[in-house]
Design brief:
By secondary structure, the protein is mainly alpha-helical. Helix content is 66%, strand content 6%. The radius of gyration is 19 Å and the shape is elongated. It starts with 5 loop residues before the first strand and ends in a 19-residue tail after the last helix.
Length: 254
């Protein structure tokens, strides 16, 4: 995509990249369910832009596997299969430990400083039960760890794998069909305890990365990834949240 392509919204220019980010976020969140049509005109109206950046965004999302183009139907949200979900988890289990090992060998002091800061924030939020803030912090942590690998190709793959996994989870039809309410007290406690444990694991990975211990960083990341993906398989069978419906073209998460 040409990132310079932009539309004007409220007196400011909105890049095609921002439009792509907004549509991708809405696909991942479930605002656009699998199989739903993505009409350029309706998307342009929704995000307050022209059809040009929307068209470019859809091309990018198709290359990433979030969108498919059907004859006589145009662009539609792709429909992830159980096999694709399993493949994504297996690939993440291989690549995330590799990324941590590379980070231990190639990280900069800047990377370590950011990672330690994110761990402090994550541990604080987890201890106080502010679970709603942890997803964005977790995304930021893992993207920074991937960048610390010093490999743009590996970093890009890791970021895309996390996005795709989040999308496959959100797109699970069984979960959507059952609906979702807030978890009960026991469920909330389990999530809080796991959040504290998860951020402790993040801290241990950062310690190994800061020491330059590639073997330990890889082993800790492998254990952390396995625990996370094991929980994903369990949660994937039962609904836990309702898709959001907010749109923010200025999102900088991606």
């Amino acid at each position: 995509m040409n990132g310079d392509t932009a539309a004007v919204q409220g007196g400011r220019r909105i890049s095609a990249h921002a439009v792509c980010t907004a549509i991708r976020d809405d696909i991942i969140s479930g605002t656009y369910p699998p199989g739903s049509r993505l009409a350029e005109e309706l998307l342009a109206r929704r995000y307050g832009v022209s059809r040009v950046p929307v068209r470019e965004a859809l091309r990018t999302l198709e290359s990433e596997g979030f969108v498919t183009t059907r004859r006589h139907a145009g662009a539609c949200v792709a429909q992830p299969s159980e096999k694709e979900a399993a493949d994504l988890l297996d690939i993440r289990a291989l690549l995330e430990p590799m990324g941590a090992a590379r980070a231990a060998q190639r990280r900069t002091e800047g990377h370590v400083k950011v990672l330690r800061g994110l761990v402090r924030l994550g541990q604080e939020r987890a201890r106080h039960g502010r679970l709603g803030e942890l997803r964005s912090l977790g995304d930021w942590f893992h993207e920074t760890l991937a960048q610390a690998s010093g490999s743009p190709s590996l970093s890009g793959l890791l970021v895309q794998l996390r996005r795709k996994t989040a999308w496959v989870y959100a797109a699970d039809p069984a979960r959507a069909q059952a609906g979702a309410g807030a978890p009960g007290a026991a469920g909330s406690m389990d999530l809080s305890v796991r959040a504290v444990e998860s951020w402790a694991e993040h801290g241990a990975i950062v310690d190994a990365v800061a020491r330059g211990d590639a073997d330990r960083a890889q082993a800790l990341a492998a254990a952390h990834t396995e625990r996370s993906l094991s929980e994903y398989r369990v949660r994937n069978a039962s609904p836990v949240r309702t898709p959001k419906h907010s749109v923010n073209t200025a999102s900088g998460r991606n």
